[in-house]
UniProtKB/TrEMBL annotation:
PROSITE patterns: GNAT. Residues 12-174 form the N-acetyltransferase domain. It comes from the Bacteria. This is GNAT family N-acetyltransferase. GO terms for molecular function: acyltransferase activity, transferring groups other than amino-acyl groups.
Length: 191
């Protein structure tokens, strides 16, 4: 098995970041797909296989952040990535990042499940108090998903991101530990 069930959910599991050639190729494809990158604000970036390999290898070696692959339980297929980074241990806060790269897995609840798993991990295992994120105002699908997971709107930076000839607002959201009540991780021994 090339993936590891670090955090197990109902339909997916989160595995430590992989650096297998076929996964690097898949990430390179996703990061050059405007269906993915328009919503994460990185379409202007050119990504080669070599640069993505170096980036993923650095993520895999990074011991300060939590970088996980999202793997489907049905077929052990890599479908996306989720992370917690920019930790502030005094404030007990971090930043969430996620995308579902495989088109057929978008809008079917896989992102919601991955977020709930990483939130539980962040609050109940890493002892975080606050997890925040930013998103483009045009990313309505993600906004609905984050609201469903318990995030609250906390503000916006007006016309902050330039994309496809226009400026878009950058929305800010967060969730506090006492606002998260989920019990999603299936492979924990202590209940």
């Amino acid at each position: 098995m090339k993936y590891f069930k670090k955090i197990l959910g109902d339909r997916i599991y989160l595995s430590p970041k992989s650096v297998f050639d076929e996964d690097i190729e898949k990430y390179t494809k996703w990061i050059n797909d405007s269906e993915v990158t328009d919503y994460i604000g990185s379409t202007s970036k050119i990504t080669t296989y070599t640069s993505e390999k170096e980036y993923l290898e650095n993520l895999a070696q990074n011991k300060e952040d939590v970088n996980l692959d999202i793997i489907s339980l049905n077929g052990d297929k890599l479908i996306g990535t989720v992370s917690l980074d920019s930790f502030n241990w005094i404030d007990r806060s971090a930043v969430l990042g996620i995308f579902i790269g495989e088109d057929e897995y978008r809008s079917h609840g896989y992102g919601t499940e991955a977020i709930n798993l990483i939130l539980e991990y962040g609050f109940k295992y890493l002892n975080l108090h606050s997890i925040r994120l930013d998103l483009l105002s045009v990313n309505e699908r993600a906004h609905k998903c984050y609201l469903k997971c318990g995030f609250k709107d906390t503000g916006r930076s007006r016309e902050n991101v330039f994309l496809n000839g226009k400026y878009y607002d950058l929305m800010h959201m967060d969730i506090l530990e006492n606002e998260f009540t989920g019990d999603y991780i299936k492979n924990k021994n202590i209940k």
